[in-house]
Amino acid sequence: MSARLTPADRQLRALTEEQWQQQVFELARLYGYNYVHFRAARTSRGWRVPVEGPLGQGWPDVVLFRPGRTIYAELKREKGNDCSPEQLWVHEQIRAAGNEVYVWRPSQLDDVIRVLQEAQE
Questions:
Q1: CA neighbor of 107 nearest in space, from 36, 5, 32
Q2: What is the reported pTM?
Q3: Cβ distance 63 to 34 under 8 Å?
Q4: Under CATH, which architecture does the 8-117 domain have?
């Protein structure tokens, strides 16, 4: 028998990716980061993000930066939604170029705070 969800677990699962993203943006501002997010737009052929190049499909949701540090982050809801093979490949390319890349879920809020607080390299 699986364990019952606590109220805190339910709250984390109810958080949308957009709400989670706004929390990360607030923390980024708090710790002195600027950020960019490329939002999808609805077209006659469905949702699209205008992008070109081999890294386009799978590009992380958010890029956070401050002098001397750049962080790439894929933001996921608490339950489900694992990274696609394309996302994992792009993450590998970003790491191979010497950059930080993370996949963050709402339950990892303490990890997000710890990473953003780390001193500049």
A1: 5
A2: 0.83
A3: no
A4: 3-Layer(aba) Sandwich (3.40)
Say if strands 100-104 and 69-75 run parallel, antiparallel, or are unpaired. parallel
Instruction: Tell me whether strands 100-104 and 62-66 are parallel, antiparallel or unpaired.
Output: unpaired
Taking the C-alpha atoms of residue 11 and residue 8, their distance in angstroms, rounded to an integer, is 5
The pLDDT value recorded for residue 111 is 96
- Token duo for residue 39: 């939002």
pLDDT given at position 101: 98
Low-confidence ranges of the chain (pLDDT < 50): 121
**Residues contacting residue 119 through CB under 8 Å, at least 6 positions apart:** none
Q: Which two tokens stand for residue 15?
A: 């958080």
Look up residue 115 and give its two tokens.
């990473």
Q: Which residues contact 86 (CB under 8 A, 6 or more apart)?
A: 57, 58
